[in-house]
Amino acid sequence: EIRQTATRAGKGAGLLGGAGYAGLMAVFFLSIALWWALGYLVGNAWSGVIVAVIWAIVALVLYLVGRKQLETVKGAPQTV
């Protein structure tokens, strides 16, 4: 029974890992598509800078939200 549970957990973890990788590739190729599309409007070099700035803003927002979440953690619960 434990072996079956571990097998199911392993398969689930593998599928979640595959989904994460597929999501990463989707974001990567959508970023390239955005870069390419903006290249027609402002030139390839500037469109690359624009996409990089967009990702920097996303990273900053995620960092600030994550930091705020971590500040609310009080520590490990104490048992009596």
Summary keywords:
80 residues, mainly alpha, flat, single chain
Structure description:
This protein is an all-alpha fold. Helix content is 86%, strand content 0%. The chain contains 2 helices and no strands. The longest helix has 41 residues, at 2-42. It is flat and about 60 Å long.
The largest sheet is: none
Q: What percentage of the residues does DSSP assign to strands (E)?
A: under 5%
End-to-end gap: 34 Å
Mean pLDDT: 89
Q: Helix tally?
A: 2
- Residues in helices, as a percent range: over 70%
> What is the tally of beta strands?
0
Uncertain runs with pLDDT below 50, 5 residues or more? none
What is the structural class? mainly alpha
What is the CA-based Rg, rounded? Answer: 21 Å
Q: Would you list the SSEs in sequence order as H and E?
A: HH
Shape: flat
How are the elements arranged and paired?
Elements: H1 2-42, H2 44-71
Helix pairs in contact: 1-2
Outline of the structure:
By secondary structure, the protein is an all-alpha fold.
